[in-house]
Specification:
This protein has about 450 residues and is of the alpha/beta class. The protein has 16 helices and 16 strands. The chain is about 35% helix and about 20% strand. The protein has a seven-stranded mixed sheet with strand order 3-2-1-4-14-15-16. Strands 7, 8, 9, 10, 11, 12 and 13 form a seven-stranded parallel sheet that branches. Strands 5-6 form a two-stranded parallel ribbon. The longest helix is centred in the first third of the chain and has 17 residues. It is globular, with a radius of gyration of 21 Å. The relative contact order is 0.15. Bound molecules: guanine (GUN) and zinc ion. The site of zinc ion (ZN) has 6 residues, from strand 5.
Length: about 450
């Protein structure tokens, strides 16, 4: 092997092989290989991850791994003795175009959309603005340790181009697409013609899907902002391309008045998910953000279809929406795929670690305490599974793409001192998701390149 190509990261490695809380029955139901509880994750103190170009080639205890690579130059090892090296975080639902309006007065979802969101998104008719915001978005996500996001752009093709161009420049794996929205929006944001809008989406799909690490999603914003004709054409486009790995990404059952509005516009539908079902949008590459106020048969439908739900707690709390029922979603009797989402800019933080902390609190409102190992699984391998990318990202293992985050357990005097009181890895991770400051991210690697290093 050419030693010049090898690079490595040294620190304490944490990577999941499975859901640490899943019972055997649940794993079998999910069609995954059964594994004992202990092998759901691996934690390697003083470990080494070796990378060749954009891939991980080896990992394990540093002493053992070094012996296998005598040619590995010590100068090519980035060292984080206090660091926990994890797979990069996966944000399964966010809107990069809302980066300029995070923290705008919430009121209710629908008022917030009309007052702040739509006017902000209308500005993405400008290529320059789109590029400026795409750059800012990635600076924030990299500083938060997020390496892959499933992203809403907006109506304008240039908003999609700007996001993909910046993602490609970084060598990152990201998913986006044109947002389809042809009714109930201001004129300056609305698609004027259903057919033209879906054909623009198709052009972007053909240009970007599978180009390097970029992936495309067909994105009807949510049922109330698409005409039945746009929904029909969008469902058709998705079905034509889903076997190539194209996604369907939308919102579902977020807030009471949103649900009432959607049902009034589609009176023939049995429930909210049935609206999407009627347009061939519910299957195993469908990703539904929020899923807060779900009827039992809607979970059942998602389970049977293999669709994914995205838990966006900072957004649901901020906008006073419904609350995600995590143990319902993960019910071993009919488990659904679940990923974590910041939902920037309804969400209030780019950090998936903070998002986990808020998810825990939402769970506690419903007597659903979920342990930290399971939450970090959802932020990494669980998110990769929700997006069907778990053969490429979400683990630190040979052959995987080298997207990683390093969490600095000594990021502040208090954090370091506090973590010394923990007896187990689980206690440590729980304290991190509860009290860690954003500066806990020491470094973020994308495809083997260090793309963020904390200053100071
Ligand atoms: N539903 C439709 N559009 C949006 C959006 O931009 N944010 C949130 N949180 N929900 C939505
Ligand atoms: Zn959203």
């Amino acid at each position: 092997m050419d030693s010049k190509k090898l690079k490595a990261i040294a620190g304490n490695i944490l990577s999941f092989n499975n859901d640490p809380a899943a019972s055997k029955a649940e794993k079998i139901a999910l069609g995954k290989q059964a594994a004992s509880k202990d092998s759901a994750y691996c934690y390697i103190p003083e470990g080494l991850v070796v990378m060749e170009q954009e891939r991980i080639v080896d990992m394990g205890p540093e002493k053992e791994v070094r012996e296998r690579y005598p040619e590995l130059d010590a100068g090519c090892i980035d060292r984080y003795p206090q660091g926990i090296i994890m797979p990069g975080f996966i944000d399964c639902h966010c809107h990069y175009v809302q980066t300029p309006m995070v923290g705008s007065f919430g009121d209710t979802l629908l008022n917030w959309l009309n007052t702040y969101t739509f006017p902000t998104e209308a500005r993405f008719a400008s290529e320059d603005f789109s590029r400026e915001v795409a750059r800012m978005f990635f600076r924030q996500t990299l500083a938060a340790g997020t390496t892959t996001s499933n992203i809403f752009s907006t109506t304008f093709p240039c908003s999609v181009e700007a996001l993909f161009e910046e993602s490609e420049r970084l060598g990152a794996r990201n998913i986006t697409g044109k947002v389809l929205q042809d009714r109930n929006l201001p004129d300056n944001l609305r698609d004027s013609d259903a057919e033209e809008s879906v054909s623009q989406s198709e052009d972007l799909l053909r240009k970007w899907h599978g180009r390097g690490r970029q992936l495309y999603a067909v994105i009807p914003r949510f049922a109330p902002t698409s005409t039945p004709e746009q929904m029909r054409l969008a469902g058709q486009l998705y079905q034509q391309h889903r076997r190539e790995g194209v996604y369907l990404h939308t919102h579902l059952n977020e807030a009471e008045n949103e649900i009432q509005w959607a049902m009034s516009l589609y009176p023939e539908a049995r429930d909210y998910i049935d609206i999407y079902d009627r347009y061939a949008m519910v299957d195993d590459r469908s990703v539904f953000a929020h899923c807060c106020i779900m009827q039992p048969q809607e979970w059942e439908r998602m389970h049977l279809a293999g669709s994914a739900a995205v838990h966006c707690p900072t957004s649901n709390l901020f906008l006073g929406d419904g609350q995600f029922r995590i143990l319902q979603a993960l019910d071993p009797a009919r488990p659904c795929l679940v990923g974590m989402g910041t939902d920037i800019g309804g969400g209030t933080s780019f950090s998936i670690v903070r998002t986990l902390g808020e998810a825990y609190k939402v769970g506690m409102l419903h007597e659903a305490p979920v342990n930290a190992l399971r939450y970090f699984y959802l932020a990494t391998l669980g998110g990769a599974r929700a997006l069907h990318l778990d053969h490429l990202i979400g683990r630190i293992a040979p052959g995987y793409e080298a997207d990683m985050v390093v969490l600095d357990t000594a990021a502040t005097e208090y954090l370091q001192w506090r973590l010394d009181f923990c007896n187990t890895l689980e206690e440590k991770l729980f304290a991190i998701l509860t009290v860690a400051p954003d500066r806990i991210v020491a470094a973020t690697y994308i495809a083997g390149e260090c793309r963020y290093t904390r200053q100071g």
